[in-house]
Design a protein that fits this description.
There is one protein chain. By secondary structure, the protein is mostly beta strands. The strands form two sheets. Strands 2, 4, 5, 6, 9, 10 and 11 form a seven-stranded mixed beta sheet that branches. It has a four-stranded antiparallel beta sheet with strand order 1-3-8-7, with no helix packed on it. Strand 5 and strand 6 form a beta hairpin. The model has no long low-confidence stretch (mean pLDDT 96).
Length: 115
């Protein structure tokens, strides 16, 4: 089994910053990719940022404001979020894909941006 734990959410004013962390542990050979999603109230879960090897990709809504990075030695992925907007308010989830494609989700961390 694989455990995925997110941390770093909280309440911040518009224009502020937060850094989310996601650590994977358990039984696996290798991590294929680690991604961040978010789900706002009443909306579908959406992809925010992806890291696959040395490549990264972002949703248009966060480009230039969010940065995803990965520490392979720690099996951890980070999401640095700057210039936060009220529309960024959501529960942020980490998705980890290991070995031959098994995917695991964390429990989510709440991010609330006040105007």
């Amino acid at each position: 089994q694989v455990q995925v734990v997110e941390s770093g959410g909280g309440l911040v004013q518009a224009g502020g910053s937060l850094r989310l962390s996601c650590a994977a542990s358990g039984s696996f050979f290798s991590i294929k990719h680690m991604d961040w999603y978010r789900q706002a109230p009443g909306k579908q879960r959406e992809l925010v940022a992806v890291t696959l090897g040395a490549n990264t990709n972002y949703a248009d809504s966060v480009k230039g404001r969010f940065t995803i990075s990965r520490d392979n030695a720690k099996n951890t992925v980070y999401l640095q979020m700057n210039s936060l907007k009220p529309d960024d308010t959501a529960v942020y989830y980490c998705n980890v894909v290991v070995d031959w494609g098994s995917a695991y989700w964390g429990q989510g961390t709440q991010v609330t941006v006040s105007s």
